[in-house]
Amino acid sequence: MTDDAIRRVALADKVHNARSIVRDYREEGHRLWERFTQKTAREQLWYYGGLLAFFEQRRPGPLTEDLWRAVGELAWLVARDDAQRLRWIANRLVGSDRYVAVGSNLSHAIQVVGRNRLFDELQIISPDGA
Predict the structure, then answer these.
(1) Which residue of 32, 41, 89, 102 pairs with 28 in a disulfide if CB–CB is 3.0 to 4.6 A?
(2) pTM of the model
């Protein structure tokens, strides 16, 4: 088996895994991370970011784009859920010194996601449309 064939099989496996995580995250939310060694969405997204960098260099093409889409969808779902949670907390802390910290955490989360080329047009929409 050639190196390219090995990378192709590994990439297909990572695409399948990422799509499965997206499906399970839609059902379980953040509870999903309890079954992984990397116990947070941030750690999982960091891991998949490394995989994307590797495969973009060594195996660019449609399958790598599929991995981008799956990881992008997961990042969007996580960012949306985090934003909703932070808005919920912020609404309960209005007038509190902690409100600014919550707001800056949300801003930081959006900035971090926004640095990735896939998320240039990311918009986080709350359930009430705000």
Answers:
(1) 32
(2) 0.68
Find how far residue 15's CA is from the centre of its chain: 14
CB 75 within 8 A of CB 119: yes
Q: Alpha-carbon distance 62 to 123, whole Å? A: 25
- The secondary structure of 75-94 as a DSSP string is HHHHHHHHHHHHHHHHHHST
Taking only the tens place, the pLDDT of each residue in 46-72 is: 999 999 999 999 999 999 999 999 999
The DSSP secondary-structure symbol of 33 reads G
CA angle 116-47-18, nearest 5°? Answer: 85
Tens of pLDDT, residue by residue over 96-107, are 444 344 444 444
Q: Distance (Å, rounded) from C-alpha 8 to C-alpha 17?
A: 14
